Amino acid sequence: MGAALDGTPTAARDGSNMIAPMLDAVRAEATLGEICGVLRDERGTYTEPPGF
Asked: CA spacing 20 to 30 A to 52: which of 5, 11, 20, 36?
């Protein structure tokens, strides 16, 4: 399954469409948490700036 997740961070890095690599990972039975973890490692976590 690790190989199925390899295309997702590459697509996130170069700005290409991430749907196809994500679908490949899902077909290989990767969980949503695993896919999100790969993307979190690549892009980081969004934190909303404080303020009103």
From this structure: 36
Question: Can you tell me the distance from the alpha carbon of 5 to that of 49, in angstroms, rounded to the nearest whole number?
Answer: 31
Shortest CA distance to 39 belongs to which of 17, 18, 23?
A: 18
Predicted TM-score of the model (pTM): 0.76
Closest CA to 1 of 42, 33, 43: 33
Give the list of residues 6+ apart from residue 18 with CB closer than 8 angstroms, or none: 8, 11, 12
Supply 34's token pair. 């695993």
Per-position pLDDT tens, the chain of length 52: 678 788 888 888 888 898 999 999 999 999 999 999 999 998 899 999 998 7
